[in-house]
Structure formats: C-alpha cells, structure tokens
Amino acid sequence: MELSDKDERLVELLAEAGLNRNIARVVVYLSKVGETISRDIEREANLRQPEVSLAMKELKNLGWIKEKEIKRKGKGRPLKSYKLSLDIKDIVKELVEKKREELKKLESELEELEELVGLK
Question: What's the rounded Cα separation, in Å, for the pair 51 and 45?
C-alpha cells in the first residue's frame, strides 16, 4: 500500500509543522496500515533501513509508537512490529498546539521589538 497523493500532501504538511520528513512518512504510513514490520515500512514508505530505524527511535521518544517482538521459527533475530499508540488526529492536534504556542511567542517578541525601536 503505497502513499497516495493525499498522503504525500499530509507528509508535506506534517514536515512543515515541524516533523522530520521521514518521521512524517512513517506516521502517515502507519496511520493507514495499522501494524506492520520495518521491512514493509521501508518498502512502502520508500525509506532506507537506517531512516526507518531513526524514525522509530524518535517516535518511541515522543511516545507515539508501540513496538512488539514477533518470534521467528528457527534461528535469527525476532522481528519487530510497530503501530501508532495515538490516532493521527491526536498527533496532528499535538503538533498544531505546539506551533500555535510558538506563533504566540513570536508575535509577542515582534511586538516587543517594534516597541523597543519606537515603531509602536
């Protein structure tokens, strides 16, 4: 399931809102598929393995992802399965609130700047 044009636009807007583009791609992909393994994320979100690993690490730090191990038959490392721990709407809400706070702070600083130089 590759990302549609609408999904790509969502990735673009999430990146504009402050998310790393690769993290945004992973978030959008996981929001579509639910739970999956990193190999599928690489293939379908068009990312390299190190990019997926870094995105997963950051998503874990943000608390936006759940990870579980899938035991393999025979030898080898267990696979890791990932899914979002929040709905994408909640992730967007969190990003929007953060950006609005940054905007308020910037507006306040710009007003102070204008006052300091006598523009107001």
Answer: 11
Give the contacts of 38 (CB within 8 A, at least 6 positions apart). Answer: 49, 52, 53, 56, 80, 82
Count of helix runs (H) and strand runs (E) in the chain: 5, 3
Domain 5-86 belongs to what architecture?
Orthogonal Bundle (1.10)
Buried b (16+ CB within 10 A) or exposed e, 24-52: bbbbbbbbbeeebebebbbebbebeeebb
- Report whether 82 contacts 64 (CB < 8 A): no
Which pLDDT tens digit goes with each residue over 15-28? 999 999 999 999 99
Read off the pTM: 0.84
Q: For residue 49, give both structure tokens.
A: 């393995």
